[in-house]
Amino acid sequence: MSNFKKNYELALNNAKRLSDKILIDGKLISAQTDKKIPVLNPSTGENIGSAPQCDKNDVNIAVESAFKAFQKWKKIPARERGKMVAAGAKRLEERKSEIETLLSLDTGNALRTQAVPETAASIELTNMFAGLSGELKGENYPPNIPNTIHYTTRDPIGVVCAIVPWNAPLFLTVAKIAPAIVAGNSVVLKTAEQAPFCALLLSEIFQQELPPGVLNVISGLGEECGEPLVTHEKVRKVTFTGSFSVGKIIAKKAAPKLCPVTLELGGKNPNIIMSDADLDIAIQGVIDGMRYTRQGQACTAGSRVYIQEKIYDKVINGVVEKLSKLKMGNALDEGSDIGAIISEEQLKRTLHYMDIAKQTSSAKVVHGGNQPTGGDYKNGFFYEPTLMSGVPVDSPVCQEEIFGPVACAIPFKTFEEVMQSANDTPFGLSAVLWTQNLSRALEFVEDIEAGFVQVNQCVAPRANVSYGGLKMSGLGKEYAFDSMINHFTQSKTVLINRGKSNIDN
Ligand code: NAD
Questions:
Q1: I need a surface site. Which of 18, 151, 278, 422 has the fewest CB within 10 A?
Q2: Per-residue pLDDT tens for 364-406?
Q3: The model scores a pTM over 0.90
Q4: To test the ligand 1 pocket, which listed residue (172, 191, 241) has its Cβ within 8 A of the most ligand atoms?
Q5: DSSP H helix total and E strand total for the chain
């Protein structure tokens, strides 16, 4: 049996087993609702199962389960909680081939280039937070009132609502559930309707080391399931990754109960190549930065590629040469570098922006620009990795988040000019500069309006690299120690007096 067939069967069996299930109080169960959301394999368009379309009844059951579990979980010493989470990570490691293959089947992200590294990064992140359990401590202050002890605590908040998108559903799930749970909270996770199974599988395996109800998973649509979860009176913290438009709704819905919200939202990120850059790394950095091997479906995708005029042709030629070598195909085929776009809806979004670009007289397709059909691509949601030139910077193609495999190359003359253009966006998620001029690099770091800034490299966010956006790209940072402390604990200030009228006796 070829690996493809083996991988496919492994993933499909798990999808079928998890179909129509939610995870409540430690068990996979059927939901209250009879409504279902069909789940498709993006590589082939075939139906691989369905997810319950939960509404407020299932939300209530999940929150009650989490609330009950929280009463005991918060009392377990932090390091014991950390040990359980580490044991959960070990289980994930033991079953990683199931997780990787289901991630690939669910999302259409290529197994070798995306699903395998995302699974490894998720396990690493889980282990990192488990190891930080002993650091959940407050501060001790020198007392300014005689005979007192003055300190602060770091306590769990309560039931956490975690809502994730479909593009990196495992890593984004772990970035929320691991620190929340280590910090002593319980969680209700709402998966993304397009890719619910991989996050459910990860949670099912992971929570086997936790008391039932500490981690609950439901599925459903935004308004019908996400909103009642956000507004539920027993939910005391909301952590959300997704689009700006939904992030704004969530912030508003959580506001009346003064519920703290973490938001990781979209971006339209500049990737700037100065003429003094080392082009051997910068050209590859355009490919990596645009996340072409995830079909451009990354919040950090460097979709505005600024190239200084002197080296413009050389960079374009280098990028095109590398793009031509990438193989697009079924996500579960280990030969594929690039998989499929998540859904027909997202594919249409890419087609819409490409229509705008193609109707612009100055615009030119430098590479790609086609939707392959027939043969291996029949019924799947594929679009070629695409690089455009000549698109005006004020075009929606250059201003709005496409969340597909389309980048725009933009020539520039001076550093001042490119900085002005790079910052001319309501987003502020990530930014990259390629230069060998240290002074320029430092000026860039100081002036660029982005929360995740890199110079001469373009790696994806990972464990222990504090990550989050500025401006319309979000509120708060994730993936590092500060995210656990700042987002998943609350603090009491305590003054204890020795309680004696005469301390000398
Ligand atoms: P989306 O905002 O449409 O949906 C995200 C999640 O929110 C889904 O689970 C969805 O069901 C839920 N949702 C939708 N409406 C809701 C509502 N009214 N109330 C509660 N929940 C609701 O985003 P998407 O299309 O799934 O994902 C793509 C977006 O996510 C892009 O904008 C991308 O940039 C962003 N993203 C950001 C990061 C980051 O870390 N900054 C990472 C990945 C993706």
A1: 278
A2: 999 999 999 999 899 999 999 999 999 999 999 999 999 999 9
A3: yes
A4: 241
A5: 16, 24
List residues with catalytic annotation.
264, 299
Domain with CATH 3.40.605.10 in the chain: 3-265+473-491
Buried b (16+ CB within 10 A) or exposed e, 327-338: ebbbbbbbebbb
Position 503 confidence tier, pLDDT thresholds 50, 70, 90: low
In what helix (H) or strand (E) does residue 60 lie, and over which residues does it extend? Answer: helix 56-73
176 lines ligand 1 (CB under 6 A): no
How many angstroms from the chain centroid is the CA of residue 367? 28
147 CB neighbour count, 10 Å cutoff: 11
Query: Under a CB-based contact definition with an 8 Å cutoff, are residues 57 and 32 in contact?
Result: yes
Domain boundaries 3-265+473-491, CATH class: alpha beta
- Comma-separated ranges of CATH 3.40.309.10 domains in the chain: 270-455
Residue with the smallest CA separation from ligand 1 atom 12 is 222
- Which residue's alpha carbon is nearest to atom 9 within ligand 1? 192
* CA separation for the pair 504, 292 (Å, rounded): 73
Whose alpha carbon is nearest atom 34 of ligand 1? Answer: 266
Spacing, Cα 349 to ligand 1 middle (Å): 15
Q: What is the pLDDT of residues 323-379, one digit of tens each?
A: 999 999 999 999 999 999 999 999 999 999 999 999 999 999 999 999 999 998 999
Cβ neighbours for 318, distance < 8 A, ≥ 6 positions apart: 279, 283
The residues that bridge with 238 in the sheet, in sequence order, are: 161, 261
Q: Which residues contact 317 (CB under 8 A, 6 or more apart)?
A: none
Ligand 1 centroid – CA 227 distance (Å):
13
What is the amino acid identity at position 266? G
Q: Is the CB of 167 under 6 A from ligand 1?
A: yes
DSSP 290-327: TTGGGTT--TT---EEEEEGGGHHHHHHHHHHHHHHPP
Q: Which two tokens stand for residue 283?
A: 């050209």
**Residue-level pLDDT at 505:** 47
| Tokens encoding 127 | 């282990």
Please indicate whether residue 226, judged by its CB atom, sits closer than 6 Å to ligand 1.
Answer: yes
Residue nearest to atom 23 of ligand 1 (CA): 242
CA distance 292 to 475: 26
Architecture (CATH level 2) of domain 270-455: 3-Layer(aba) Sandwich (3.40)
Helices (H), 311-383: 312-325, 344-358
Give the nearest ligand 1 atom to 267 CA. Answer: 34
Q: Tell me if 451 CB under 6 Å of ligand 1.
A: no
Q: How far is the CA of 408 from the centre of ligand 1 (A)?
A: 24
